[in-house]
Write a structure and sequence with these properties.
single chain, about 350 residues, alpha/beta, Helicase, Ruva Protein, domain 3, Rossmann fold, 2 domains, five-stranded parallel beta sheet, 13 helices, globular, ChlI/MoxR_AAA_lid
Length: about 350
């Protein structure tokens, strides 16, 4: 399976050369601060640079992430280390079949001393919420996250309560074990900006993991591993403001729309990408362009983010699945077929 976010590529198409006039020049200080996250996370997690970049893009876009990987590839450790390197508050919820919506969002609690109800905040009131094995809880509890993910608030007893900023949900799921799980509905999948896959490590990376454990590495003690904050919420906010000013030429915008529209016409798919998916692709491409040091988006930025942004927004036909077709192969076909603006 291809890496969620590839290495930088030479831009082509509209907005190359020296770029359009009057475009944003990304702040080197902000970019270097976020780029340093890779080295900091690598102190605890080995060989997952692409996933770290994807999570940074999600933070820049105020988007949510679905992490998919077999058990033991450091999904939970990755999120905990990233939050420590960004000095963000993080909470973890283990999703189980008996988890109730109030266990996530919070609930009203009766105080016998005052004879009044008071609101007790749930773990959703944090900056980085790790929803571990989200597909192990019933749809009712899964749905409790929808308002939080879309509106950045939760409503209890008719009263909306704002969540902290930034607020990002990072949900994990196991791609090989389906017994006792509940498939995420399309409406919820569409709320995730990116779906990142964490592959099994290469041999040299796995050897390095074993070496660290043999030398006493404790994944529960990140401070002992040397993980320190290299950025913070203030820098993240300023970076977001710059990303919002990254320019998109009409031809590139139309290209992103054409890629998404082409998925709706694919004979292998029963569900193509919605307009929300096209907006997500454009937002992710802008963040990637900014991280690459440009104040404008190129068609290559759109291509680079197409797989992680769109793979969970399409649904294969049953007959296509039987023939071995995958969402990745369909997206490859679409990207090869849609004309690239020059």
């Amino acid at each position: 399976m291809p890496a969620p976010v590839p290495a930088p590529v030479e831009p082509t198409g509209p907005g190359t050369d020296d770029g359009p006039a009057h475009v944003l020049t990304p702040s080197e200080e902000l970019r270097q601060g976020l780029a340093a996250l890779r080295a900091e996370v690598a102190k605890a997690v080995v060989g997952q640079d692409a996933a770290v970049t994807g999570l940074v893009i999600a933070l820049l876009c105020r988007g949510h992430v679905l992490l998919e990987g077999v058990p033991g590839v450091a999904k939970t450790l990755l999120v905990r280390t990233l939050s420590a390197a960004l000095d963000l508050d993080t909470k973890r919820v283990q999703f189980t079949p008996d988890l109730m919506p109030g266990d996530v969002t919070g609930s009203l609690v009766y105080d016998a001393r005052t004879a009044e109800f008071s609101f007790r905040e749930g773990p959703v009131f944090t900056n980085l919420l790790l929803a571990d094995e989200i597909n192990r809880t019933p749809p009712k509890t899964q749905a409790s996250l929808l308002e939080a993910m879309e509106e950045r608030q939760v409503s209890v007893d008719g009263t909306p309560r704002a969540l902290p900023d930034p607020f990002v949900v990072v949900a994990t799921q196991n791609p090989v074990e389906y017994e006792g799980t509940y498939a995420l509905p399309e409406a919820q999948l569409d709320r995730f900006l990116l779906k990142l896959t964490l592959p099994l490590p290469e041999r040299e990376h796995e050897v390095e993991v074993m070496r660290r454990h043999s030398q006493g590495f404790d994944p529960r003690d990140l401070a002992a591993a040397g993980v320190r904050p290299v950025s913070d919420a203030d820098q993240l906010t300023r970076a977001r403001e710059e990303v919002a000013r990254v320019q998109v030429a009409d031809e590139v915008l139309a290209y992103a729309v054409d890629v998404c529209r082409a998925t709706r016409q694919s004979p292998s798919l029963s569900l193509g990408v919605s307009p929300r998916g096209a907006a997500a692709l454009l937002a992710a491409a802008r963040a990637w362009a900014w991280l690459s040091g440009r104040g404008y988006v190129t068609p290559d930025d759109v291509k680079a983010l197409a797989h992680p942004t769109l793979r969970h927004r399409v649904q294969l036909r049953a007959e296509a699945e039987l023939e071995g077709v995958t969402a990745e192969s369909v997206l490859d076909t679409v990207l090869a077929a849609v004309p690239v603006p020059r």
